[in-house]
Amino acid sequence: MKRFLLLASTLSLLFLSGTQAAQATAGSGTFQWEAGAGTVCGVEATACPDVARASNGDTFSLRAQGDLNTANGASGSGTFEHQTAAGTVVARGNLTVTGLLTFIPYGCGVQVPPNFCGGRAALAVHLVAHPASNPSATVEADGILEVECALGNPPAGAREGIRLNVKDLINFNKSVIGDTLFIKTS
């Protein structure tokens, strides 16, 4: 995270070169969200993909991004890989955001460019997976993806990364590695 802040500070000088920027606020509006994809990938070697772990040791790796409007919902998509605790690939597939459940802003522009924001979004998602044992087969499921960026003024216990609860199948409830970001667009 320290490298992220250093790079973000450097980027802010490039973004603002000679202009006066107002402090962005994160309560309402529109944002671009990134989870293990996009701008955050250039920050540090461990930024992408985002990885979450289930209690059985299985991991879920995600590269996704999209848009979030606090008044109208969210959209986005990405690719994922599910592995066992031993590292065997279980499935690969695509994730599509179907809605915004909640968004809790943590603030923008704290030691980073004014439009870089922290927060936690809970997104309804649909997953289409192709099992490694039968790549031509398709398994579909719905879940809740939580994207959390610890920039701004996060509450105690905030944890950078993702978590995914695939309804009635598996809960990847521990963020392991990777970076996320909300970029305020209006």
Polypeptide structure, described:
The chain has 186 residues and is mostly beta strands. It is built from 1 helix and 11 strands. It has one helix spanning 2-16, and strands spanning 30-35, 50-53, 59-69, 73-83, 89-108, 116-131, 139-149, 161-166, 170-172, 174-177, 180-184. The chain has a 6-stranded antiparallel barrel. Strand 4 (73-83) and strand 5 (89-108) form a beta hairpin. The longest helix has 15 residues, at 2-16. The two termini are 25 Å apart.
Q: How many strands?
A: 11
Q: Please mark out the parts with pLDDT under 50 across 5 or more consecutive residues, or reply none.
A: 1-26
Q: Structural class, from helix and strand content?
A: mainly beta
Helix amount: under 10%
Average pLDDT rating: 87
Q: Indicate the overall shape.
A: globular
**How far apart, in Å, are the first and last alpha carbons?**
25 Å
Biggest sheet architecture: 6 strands, antiparallel, barrel
Strand residue content: over 45%
The SSE string, one letter per element, is HEEEEEEEEEEE
SS summary, helix count: 1
Rg from alpha-carbon coordinates: 17 Å
Q: Name the strands of the widest sheet in spatial order.
A: 1-3-4-5-6-11
